[in-house]
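Hi P.,

Sorry for the delay on this. The queue was packed all week, but I finally got your sequence through. Input first:
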Amino acid sequence: MNARAHGVPRPRPRRGVAGALLAACLWAPGGAPAQEPPSGPEAVEAITVTGSRIPRKDLEAAAPVTVLSREEIDRSGATSIGQLLRELPSVAGQAQTTQANNGGAGTQQISLRGLGSVRTLVLLNGRRLPPSVDSGAAVPAVDLNTLPTLAIERVEVLKDGASAIYGSDAVAGVVNLITRRNFEGVELNAGYGDTDRGGGSKRELGLVAGGGSETANWMFVGQYTDEEEIEVTDRDWATVPLFVSNGEVIFLGSTAPPWGRYRSFGEADAGRDCNGDGVLEGNCDLTLGPEYGAGFRRFDYFGGDSYNYAPSNYQRQPNERWNASFFGDARLEPLDALGWLEDTQVYLEASYTNRKSQAKLAEVPLAPLAFYAYEAPYAADNAYNPFGTAVPDWSRRMVEDGSRIDDHDEDTLRLLAGLRGEFEGALEGWRWDLSYTRAESERKVNFGRIYDLERVARAVGPTTGSPETGDLRCAADPDGCVPLNVFGRGSVTPEMLAYLTFTTDERLEAEQDIWELNFFHDALFELPAGPLGVALGYQRREESAKDLPDPRMAALGDATTGTTRQPTGGGFEVDSLYLEAVVPMLRGLPLAEELDLELAVRHSDYDTFGSTTDPKFGLKWRPHPDWLLRATRSDAFRSPTVGESFGGAGISFPSLTDPCAGGRMGGKVCLDPRVPDAGFEPISTQIRERRGGNPELDPEQAEIFTLGFVFTPGELSGLSLALDYYEVDIDRSIQGLGPEFILRTCASSGRLCDRIERFADGNVRLRRNRVTNVGGVMLGFAGIEAGWLGGEIDARLGATRTLEFDVIQSGGSVIRNAGWFRDDHGGHFAKWRATLGLDYRRENLRVSWDARFIDEVKEAFVDQFTGEVLQRKMSGRTYHDLQAAYDLELANASATLVLGIDNLFDRDPPFSLDASNDNTDVRTFDTVGRYFYLKVATRF
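Then the structure:
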């Protein structure tokens, strides 16, 4: 791979490239009409493949495409297209999934090549789908849960950049979902699946109805899906958070336990005995301990005094979805009668999805100073204070309040209306397509409970009266305030909680409008080697979003335990022109059975950052009927999302370890001058981060190269083999620096320390992590796909090899991801991923076996006691799935029965010391366990 400087804008092609190509196509010499296509049984219908808008009779294009068929969808246990796509070897990284509870929003997204879901474009019938709505600076992408599996005929996955055809986001590739066509009759579907470990059952009901005539077709799809939650307690590998301390794997939980932690009160004095145990301490750090003893003792984080928060969480979120979709087209014969139009059709696509999901997190860790950097000292003259001196830093897990529940209710509506047809007369042979798409999303989020820290400060402040006499009051607010008692088991009463807490109702909205006009000609004029195919068009796209947090939350600002942010909104408009041509160069010559040149260019003008022009060049060479060589070279771009540009700054609380806590990291002194030489005792395992959007962002720019070979021997009909190489180089990538990366970089080099605010003792008060254009990404992949269609027995193989995956950070430092799992920086990048499948068919029976392999990786983690950054191997996994389908012929109907087992040998996910959820990478591995399912489809 050729290296080049990152962060330096490269020269962009001039607008004249598009103009010259456009003129050449529209004003071809003499405007010679194409030859008439063959008629009769020899005629082959022209179709459009993903990655091109030109109808063609040859399915093979210059770019590699993987296809998932309707049969594969039917036989799988997946209840969304996203779950099925995640099993492809070309999918990696950290796209959202319902298996991610903490930080998950119930969506199912896809990340090709591990480049992230925002760099993977998702289409429906070749048209862009709206992204899901998300809060703050969170990055939205298409939620594949909104697409009913029953409506999909096939899924085409283009593993190449395609900005020259589709515009922004098509950097890693394109996922194009193609709906079922010409469906007639009624199909009823039902499915049920369950695990043998508890939790995780799934239920599906569906209806497909359609009909047609010579002039019209329609299809209606209704689908209901209910996915049950999995509790952490249902999976023993997730029930205890595990870390390394002084070289040993031990349980370490939260520093805010139900038995309390009370720090740094009284005057620091090396000769002071805090709790009368004869040990002299400078600063007191006391607890009642999990035994809730008669008196206070020293808090021992490594000795069992931390709190196991894991059992109070979901391992997988529940997810309930309703979808109704309609697809139809009808011929408009009155327009054909005009004389210059032919085969004119009106077409419609309409879909509505309601999704309800829920996250469940551990009880609120009420630690005003340690977790939220809010000063709420326990007053010396508060009647509940047993120490008789103020306690500035105290922590208490509010178990009396129960787990935090985060309810999401999202509606997504998409309407598309269009006209299409052919011209007659002077423009005969040209096809046209005019459409308008309107999409709206609204997510309502209810979060409970949130603690008002202003009220907390009053409740732990000075009091009047006495608990014994029943006249205890807060001195600061005697009429409404309820004093808070955080000392002892069950000490927090419902009245205290009612005063301190509130629930939030927030709303997020997004809108998308797309106007599109396209023209196609698959044989504009005849060249010596064949007809020239052309497509050109114009698109206007408008997107906007609003983030409307709860008014009380916004008014309190940082004085809450929630992820506070201010109301924000924004959007962009973009006008685009594109041109594509397929130029046949040679035909029927020695070593040149076929040689085609594919050209495309797109110019996009944004009202936010300006314009970009992105070309693509492809070559398809068939030196022999059995061999095909293909190559592409393209520029691609990704414009900032609405959230990245305009998202309000919000607070989050990732679980992290500060390497400076031990004073030393890997034998080197921590280079942050604000940290004491001896380090410090961490006051929290969660560190506040403020992250927000940036209206000054520029688009990402990418250079992409692919090279491939396809072998389809004529003497072995049914055998196919494809080898492909993929290389991408992204400049000015839009990213926030990984939260652990900021801490490690500050500790090891002294850089980025200005992004960290610290308390006087060295503990982190806040990290600032605004998204920006910084560094880039360089990666290289090799892939193989092979298949054998043998009649009764079919076989298929797919594999990818990650050759390089380098992320260039601020200052030029490089993170090498190939062969690594980095939970805070991109996810899981195994060097090898593979799938292998066998199908057996005999009369009405079909049996399938599929295996998925994910290679082992390395991971880095921090020793919680010493602060050293260590490495280990995280093991890989091989999963086996088994399915059987049987077709039944009934009176006036037919039916298909499917039985399946996913994860046949019940493999647990591999253990990780770098994962922030459940001791494993929940976005890559199967966390459900052995899963049995039954599906029935009846057609009338």
